[in-house]
Amino acid sequence: MKTCPYCKSTTFDDMDICYGCLHPLEQTLEALPSVSLEDARIARFSVVLLGAFSYEMRLKKREGALLTVGSASANNIVIPSAAVAQHQLDIFYSQERIWIEEKGLSCETDIDGIPLLGTRSIKPGAQLQVGDAVITLVSD
Hints:
By secondary structure, the protein is an all-beta fold. It has no helices and 13 strands. The radius of gyration is 15 Å and the shape is elongated. The relative contact order is 0.17.
């Protein structure tokens, strides 16, 4: 038997996906290369799922750099919830700023408690609430 790292449901060994939360069981978070915190070319995000599981994502600060967020396993940040769209939002770097653009309509995305409508730039400390996940821009 396997145990899902997100929702702690047990599944059979031959299952590829958790039917409790739809997380792909074989997907692992690869270790990111060590980067100095003083490196100004990296934006860091803290991702907390279900209030318990957390990790860090990094976005290179170059025009067009992109992180996708949603319930589909193809996203950079996967939120295993039926309430979250397969492609809920994009986090991207453009015009020397970090931007958030909502793509899915099935779940409201809040930035610091205010609903996101369309596209908006964010600054360090901004908290995005997407379903059961909180994504915080730690540094830009």
